[in-house]
Fold each of these.
Amino acid sequence: MSTLNSDSGGWAARHKKNVVLLGFWTGAWVVTLAVAVFGSLLVWSDSKVLTSIAILVNVAAGAGMIVANKNHLRGLDEMQQKIQLDAMALALGVALVAGLAYSTSDITNLIGFDAEFSHLVFLICLTYGVGIIFGRRKYQ
Amino acid sequence: MKNRLKVLRAERDWTQAQLASELDVSRQTVNAIEKGKFDPSLPLAFKAARLFGLSIEDIFQDEADIQTRLRID
C-alpha cells in the first residue's frame, strides 16, 4: 500500500471555514434586516436617525455576506463550482423572465394585487435550491 | 471520457477521501470522476497524473479515441 502524506487541513478544512463565515455573515444580514424592519415599526417608529443607522448596519452586513459568498464560491472545487454556476444561471433566468412577467401583470392590472419584490426573492431562492439539488443528483 | 482512477486508487488501497485530499477537491468530485459523470479540468488531470506517477493518457481515455483504436485493431 502506498502511503499518502496529505495534510488533513487541506480543501475540506478551508471549505468548512468558508461555510462557517458565510453562515455568520448571512445570519448577521438577516438579523440586521429584521432589526431595521421591526425596530422602525415597533420600537423607534418616529426616529429616522435610528432607522437610517439600522439600514446602514444592514447594508454593511450585506456587504460582508457578499464577500463571504464570493470567497465561498472561489473555495469550491471545479465540480461544485459548475453545480453552483448552473443553479445560479437557472435562478437568474427564471427571475428575469418570471419577474418581468409578474411586473407586467401588475402594470396591466391583470392581477388584483401589487407585485411584491419579496415574491421574486422567494422565487429566486426556490429556483436556486432546486438547481443545487438537481446538480448534486446529476453528479452522484 | 473513461478513466482508471478507481483501479489506480484501489491498487494503492487509498480511500476516495484520501485521494480527494491529495487532489485538493471534495470526495464527491472524486466519486463523480471515477463514475465518469464529471470530466476533470486539465490542471486536475495533470495533478492526478503526477500523484500516480503516470501520464494523463494512462489514466484518462477519450471514448471516441478508444473506438477508433478498436476499429484499427
Amino acid sequence: MRYAYYPGCSLKSVAVEYDAALKAVCEKLGVTLDEIDDWACCGATPAHAVDRFLSVALPARNLATAQKAGNDVMVACAACYNRMKVANHEIATDGALRKEVNEALGTDYDGGVKVLHLIEVLVNGIGIDKLKERVTKRLDGLKVACYYGCLLLRPPKVMHFDDPENPTSMDRLIEVTGAVPISWEFKTECCGAAMGIARTDIVHKLCGRILSDAKNRGAEMIAVACPLCQSNLDLRQSDVEKDLSREFRLPVLYFVQVLGLALGIDAKSLGLDKLIVDPIPLLTQKGVI
Amino acid sequence: MARIGVFVCHCGENIAATVDVKKVAEEASKMPGVVHAEDYRFMCSDPGQRLIKKAIAEKKLTGVVVATCSPRMHETTFRRAVAEAGLNPYRCEIANLREQCSWVHADRTKATAKAIELTRLIVEKVKRNHDLFPIRVPVTRRALVVGGGIAGIQAALDIANAGHEVILVEKSPSIGGRMAQLSETFPTLDCSQCILTPRMVEVKSHPKIKLYAYSEIEEVSGFVGNFKVKIRQKARYVDAKKCTGCGLCQQKCPTKKVPSEFHELLGTRTAISIPFAQAVPNIPVIDRNSCLFFQKGRCKLCEKVCPAGAILYDQQDQIVEEQVGAVILATGFDVMGVEDFGEYGGGRYKDVITALQFERLLSSSGPTGGKVLRPSDGKEAESVVFLSCIGSRDRSKGVEYCSKICCMYVAKHAMLYKHKNHHGQAYVFYMDVRAAGKGYEEFIRRAVEEEGVVYLRGRVSRIYEQDGKLIVKGADSLSGTQVEIAADIVVLATAVKPKPGIAELAQKFHVSYDAHGFLNELHPKLRPVETASAGVYLAGACQAPKDIPDSVAQASAAASKVLALFSSAELEREPTISVVNEKDCVGCFACEAVCPFGAIERKEVRDKQGNLVKIVSHVNPGICQGCGACVVACRSQCIDVEGFRGEEVFAEIMAL
C-alpha cells in the first residue's frame, strides 16, 4: 500500500506527535507514505475567509503534484483534508475556476486525485478485520469518547465522510483495540477552533460542554482526528476546569496514538510525552504501559 | 368556388395601435376567393358578431377568417356565431394578429405587412376547410374513486347522492384515511373521528356505493366515458361474507406486539387485526409477515375461536373488473420520516417523533388513551417542543415547497397539549406562520395569547440527549439570542409528500405528475380538478398539500365535474382528432408506438367474401386528443388530424 502523504503545517509544528504516531503505525502496518514533494500550506481557514481563488489554488498545487506521482493522497489533519476535498469539488464543478487555477499554477489539474483521511485508509484500506489481527496489547475496558469535530464531516455533500450527524468510523477503529467507544452527544460539535486566538472565552465555553458531556458519560479519554481540536481540548483543559470549577483530567489523544498503543508501539514513539494532560497515569492504571 | 369573408378586429388599441387594420382589410379584399372584408373595433362584441352573421347571410360566405386575438381566447365565440348563421363552425378560423403580431412588434409598417401575410395564409387554409361534426361517445354513468380518505369519501357520497353508482377502491383495510388518525381538527377543535365516522358509515350503507377495501388498481384501459378497470382485492385471509366483526380473533391472537400502522408505529396490534374500532369495513386482516401460522406453520388460534368460521388461510388475491365512465384520484399524502433528520436525532431518540405520531398520542383512541406520554419511557411530558418547516421550504434537506398544513396543526398540537397538561409548556420554533384561511389567523392568535404557547422565530440547529431530556438548541432571531430548551418530546412537522407508488398509479391513468410526484391538474387556476387525461379528476392531497376543508371542497368540485359528464348518455367531443386513411395504411403501427394516450387500435379490413385483406390502424375517437404525434410517425403519410390536414397546413405555408 502506497499513498502520497500530505502532512500539512500542523503536523510539522503543534502536532508533531500526530505525525510521529501515524508514521509509526503506518510502518507497522506496511503502508508506505511518500511525502508530497515541495508541498505548501493548504490555505487553511484564512485563505477561504478572504480569497476563494487562493483557497482552491493552494491545495490544488499540492494535489497537482500528487497526481503526477500517481497515488491517492492521504491526509491526517482535518482542516487540510477539508480544504483538499473542497478544492477538488470546486475544480471539478467550476470550469472557469479550474481554468484560472491551472493557468496560475502552470498545471492541467482536473480535480480527480482521490483524497483520503487517515481514518479512511485504516478502516476501508486496511480494514477492521485485518487491524484486529495486528493488535498485540488490548486496551480492554478503557472508555474513549471519539470526537470527530466539524471539518471531517462538513459540508456532507462534498466530504462524503461517514454519517454527518452520527459518525461511527473512528468508534469502530477504537473498538479494534478492545477499548469501549462511549455513546455520547458531542461527537460533531464545534470546539471553537481558531476562535481560541480572538475569543478564548467562547472556546472555553464550547470545550467545556464537550469535556463535560464526555466526563458525564464516563469517558476516561478523548480520541480526536484534528490538531486544532486536540490543542483546544488538551491545552485549554486546565483553564476550562477553572472556569467550571470542575476537574476533568481527560487525556486527549489522536486516535492513531490509541491504535498505536494496541499495536504494541511504545509511548515515546507515539509522542505521548507531547500531550499536556498526561495520559501515562491512566494508561498505567489500565495496565496498558 | 370559395367565398371567404375576412373580419379584422382592432381589439381597442391592442391591435390597431401597431397594425394598420384598415390596410389589412383592404389588402384582404384583394386576396383570391375573398368576397368580403371589413374591420371593426371589437369583433368579439355582440355588434361585431352581428357583422359576421350579416355577411354570411348576405354574401353567402363559405368560410370566415377573423383576424383578431389568439384562438385560445375567442375561437369558440366566433365559431358559435358562425354556426348560428348556418355555417359549419369548423369553417371559421382565426388569424392571430395580437399575440403573434401587434403585441410583439413595434414597427407599424412591418407589423402591418406581417398582419396581411398572417391573414393571407389563414384565408388559404379556410378555403380548404370542410365541415366537421362533433364526435359522440357513449358514457358509462358509473364513477371510480381511488382512495378512501376524506376526499375520496366526499367525492363518492356526492356522486352517489346524485343517483350514480360509485366504485370506491381503498388500498388499506379500512376507509377513513389520514383523517381517521387525527385527534381534533383546526380551527374549531372538533373531534376528527366524530365528524368523519358518520360519513364512513354512510359510504358503507349507501346502496349506490360499492366498496373495495384492501384493494388496489391493477390495470386500466379504455377512455373517457368507457374505462375498464381491473382491481386487485388483496387476500385478507378472512371471508368477508361470513365475518361478523366480533373481534374475538384479535382478542385471542397470541402475536400482540406488532407495531401498528394506524398508530404510526407508536402502539401495537395483533397479527390478525381490525385497524381501529370504527373501521369500515369492520373485517380483520391477517398480516402474513407477523402471523405465527404463515411464518412458522403453527397456531391457527383465530380459526379455532372464530364463531363464524370465517378464517380462510388459503384465500388468494382476486382480480375483479369494473366498467366506469369517470375516475377521481384521491390517494392522499404521506409525511417525511424523522430518520431523514439526523441533526435532530431522528431515528436515534424515541422521543423525537413526527406530527402524525403526535396526533396518535393526543387521540383518545390512541396508544396512550390521549395522554401525552414519552414514547421512550411512558412518563408524562412536561415540555414539548414543536419544530415547523422540517424538510419543507428546504432545498438542501427536503423539498422547496411549503407543506401548507403544518402551521395550523402545530398550533393545534401545542394547544391540545396545553389542554391536557396545564402545567406543561409548549414551544414552537417557526420560520413564519402561514395562517391564510377562515378563522385560521384567529386560531394562531389564540394559541399565542390565550393558551400560552411560546412561539420562537428561528431554526433549531441540533438536538441531543442529556440527563434524560432532549436538549433543543436553537436561535430566537427576534431577540437575537441562542436558546436551549430541555424537552420531553420533540415533534417534527415533516414535509408532506405524495403516497409511495403514486407514479405507477398516475401512469396507469395517463395523468402527469410533478417532480415530487404530486398529480398535475389541467390548469392551475381555471381547471384545478381536471387532468390532461379526459375523464380523470383529482381530489385532495394527491394534487398538493391540502387541509381537510380544501380537500373536501376539491372533492365536491371533482364530483360536480363527474356529474356534468354523466348529465347525458353521450359525450360530445371536438372532432379535431386523428383519422387514418385505411386505403394507404400498411399496418406498420409506428403510430401505436408513439401515441401517448393509447388511442391507436388495430382494425381488420375484409373483402366482400369476408377474407382478411390487411390489418390497419384505427383511431379510437374517444381517446384521441389530437396531438398529432401519429401524423409525424406515419411512414405512409396516411394519418391526418382533422382541422389541421396536411393539405390545409401546406396551403398556409405556400401562401407565405
